[in-house]
Amino acid sequence: MSTPEPDQVAAPRRGRPGHDQETVLRQAIELFNAQGYDGTSMGDLAKALGLTKSAIYHHVPSKTHLLSLALDEALDGLTAVIDEAEQASAGASAYERLRRAVQLSVEVLVAHQPAVTLLLRVRGNSEVELDALRRRRAIDTRLAALVQQAVDEGSLRSDVSPQLVSRLLFGMVNSLVEWHRPGGAVDAHQLSEAITTIAFDGLATHQS
Length: 208
Hints:
Layout: H1 21-35, H2 42-49, H3 63-86, H4 94-111, H5 113-120, H6 127-152, H7 162-174, H8 176-179, H9 188-203
């Protein structure tokens, strides 16, 4: 079993030629997803980057720091989606704001798929993970509020609870990490259009 990595060490120094913190972060996310966060050591990361274990600390202070950066990348993108939906122009209906939130969430997932994949695997095994889960719950609460507003205006059917609708909608979005492959035949726009069409055709109220 590998020796636990220090969470607090000296601040990262300027990166060596050929590497920067962004490069290190991309490689770390790839390893965390492939091997699990707990199963990945800083030594593994250094080896993947072609560095010595001591040299990796010229780029980042700790493995925990990398996890925090990765989770923030996903959460910041999703939070920005909700912010945009909530701050939409006064002329936009709740239905339009919710639909836009789903479309943009798909685009965030595709653009940041490795980071979102890591976020969806978080189980709360550290303070960083617990904080990420708290942020996810806050996002879920805001999404449920958007659903409730669409129900209240009569745009969405009212026989399913807003919390359940929100979970079903974004469960569909999140499932993309299991099968979508970046650079494949279906792009982010096609995915967002397909998901919103399928979801909202079933959720919309139908008046004769």
